[in-house]
Amino acid sequence: MTSPTSDRRLRPTGTLAQQVSDDVRKRIGSGEFAANERLPSETALAAEYGVSRVTVRTALRTLESQGLIDVRHGSGSFVAGFGTQIRAGIQELRSMSETIRAMGHTPGMQRHSLTHRRATPEEEELLRLASGEAVLHIERMVLADRRPVAFSYDTVPARFFPPERAEHVGEASLFDDLDAAGIHPVRASAEIHAVVDPTIGWGSNRPKQGLYILLDQLHVDRQSTPVFFSKTYFAEGRFQFVVLRTR
Amino acid sequence: MTSPTSDRRLRPTGTLAQQVSDDVRKRIGSGEFAANERLPSETALAAEYGVSRVTVRTALRTLESQGLIDVRHGSGSFVAGFGTQIRAGIQELRSMSETIRAMGHTPGMQRHSLTHRRATPEEEELLRLASGEAVLHIERMVLADRRPVAFSYDTVPARFFPPERAEHVGEASLFDDLDAAGIHPVRASAEIHAVVDPTIGWGSNRPKQGLYILLDQLHVDRQSTPVFFSKTYFAEGRFQFVVLRTR
DNA sequence: TAGTGGTCTAGACCACCGC
DNA sequence: CGGTGGTCTAGACCACTAG
Questions:
Q1: Is the dihedral of CA A83, A84, A85, A88 positive or negative?
Q2: Which of A52, A89, A93, B93 is the most exposed place for a label (fewest CB within 10 A)?
């Protein structure tokens, strides 16, 4: 559509498809599009936003994969029936704090330890380090409403950070620390495992059963260069992962 | 490309993008495209297959999400380094047998029990059944190379099947049974859980630790009508799930 | 700077749904 | 049947990579 007669204003962040996706999500959240209601047709949304239908479809696909809408061939797209519970799609890579906030809870982060040490041979290979290079190893507890929901063990090359900053790495968001250092992880390939290990974590609030979903992740930047890896243990029952599987 | 001068022959199964994706996967498997090698450019592939670049991109995105290739902006697409280990993307909805075969193993299926009974109130709501309707409940063991890798508990409305067929449901692929009955599940929304439960499963080969990844799934057809639900317990350590997470 | 992938467009045709 | 989503095309321009 070249005539912007009815363009809805978009926050110019990221790709057009992301902007549309964000805006529709906002309109769902605000109640403008209520549960089980039909969204405007793809053609109508394209006209309203002043973008092509392909772009609208890309945006809707994102919302679908997050379980927010339900796209039905021949009928339309519908706001998903609840229940109200905000679910985290496992395909989305976001900082833990973001994810928890999006779930409607108050995030917290507690760094348990920070170690500066030489990389092991395995770490050297995984992160493509020079021989003898140093890494920072960080152990953190992730809280939602002051309750531990995950324990994360992260390993990142020490050279990313100037010495005066290194000691503060991981006090809050590791993603933010990396961004500030000009390192931008954008993807992670993750293995999903079930783990029982009572030695995982620390503190008195730690889940007693020691049952976790482990995401064993290697984060890479846009060039697929390894940036850091992490093992994050999500306490079963305190964190819900959802995935939309398609044929 | 309208001139099919160099069309590579494709198996006319599914969408064009799927055909391209399948063919490139085959060429990777055959070694024509070796590990860490660069694939032909998207433009070149589009010309070779006689399809648009958009279609090639859709196909490559699928392979990327399965961890088979590595797409790098400005450089090209590369066959992922192995590993040799064949991995199953959690976003793909396929029958267990298909998945195991694709992993390079010999699939097997053993039905442990088949129960015809009235649906519980919860099942009625989940599957949108009429009051008092009957369901089939099936318990099966999934084998790879004769070794149990998963236990599946499936519940499906009894009315899908004529009486003479009902007793054979789930002896092999439930997907096939449903297809034959004109029911076509195409998507599943799944919750992912970690479970420890020694009462899961049966038989002498059952994993002793009783540790599983549970996929709690509701399968729906194209109209998002619930078709059946299943709880599938994948033995930790015998089955590997992978997911590509993106920002 | 040449070549690659990243994004977007306008338009087309098909398959499916519900009236 | 009209309206919806599903798929595909040809072309365009941009951002990134590497020599």
A1: positive
A2: A52
Residues forming a β-bridge with B144: B107, B147
Residue B41 CB contacts under 8 Å (≥ 6 apart), including other chains: B76
Domain ranges of chain A: 4-79, 88-242
- Locate tokens 């229940």: which residue? A83
Residue A134 CA neighbour count, 13 Å, CB half: 12
B44 touches strand C (CB under 7 A): yes
Query: CB distance from A211 to chain B under 8 Å?
Result: yes
Does residue B187 approach strand C to less than 7 Å at its CB? Answer: no
Name the CATH topology of B4-79. Answer: Arc Repressor Mutant, subunit A (1.10.10)
Structure-block tokens of residue A230: 């992490």
pLDDT tens for B108-124 read 999 999 999 999 999 99
Scanning every residue of chain B, which has its alpha carbon at the shortest distance from the alpha carbon of A67? B189
Q: Could you tell me the pTM of the whole model?
A: 0.79
Confirm if A169 and A136 have CB atoms less than 8 A apart.
Answer: yes
Burial label for B154, CB within 10 Å (0-12, 13-18, 19+), is buried
Q: Output the pLDDT for position B62.
A: 86
Interatomic separation, CA of residue B45 and C1' of nucleotide C1, rounded (Å): 24
The pLDDT tens digits of the residues spanning A74-101 come to: 999 998 865 434 456 777 777 788 777 7
Contact between residue B59 and residue B17 where contact means Cβ atoms under 8 Å apart = yes
Closest nucleotide relative to residue A57's CA, C1' based: D5
Mind telling me how many Å the CA of B99 is from chain A's nearest CA? 12
**CATH 3.40.1410.10 corresponds to the domain A88-242:** yes
Q: How far apart are CA B225 and CA B62, in angstroms?
A: 26
A66 min Cα distance to partner chain B (Å)? 10
Q: What is the pLDDT of residues B188-210, one digit of tens each?
A: 888 889 998 888 888 877 877 78
In chain A, which residues have their Cβ closer than 8 Å to the Cβ of B88?
none
The answer to whether B174 CB sits below 7 Å from nucleic acid chain C is no
Distance set, CA A224 to CA A12, A188, A209, B58, B59 (Å): 26, 9, 37, 19, 19
Q: How confident is the model at residue B86 (pLDDT cuts 50, 70, 90)?
A: very low
Which nucleotide shows the minimum CA-to-C1' distance to residue B15?
D7
Q: Which residue has the higher pLDDT, B23 or A91?
A: B23
Q: Among all strands, which nt has the closest C1' to B64 (CA)?
A: C5
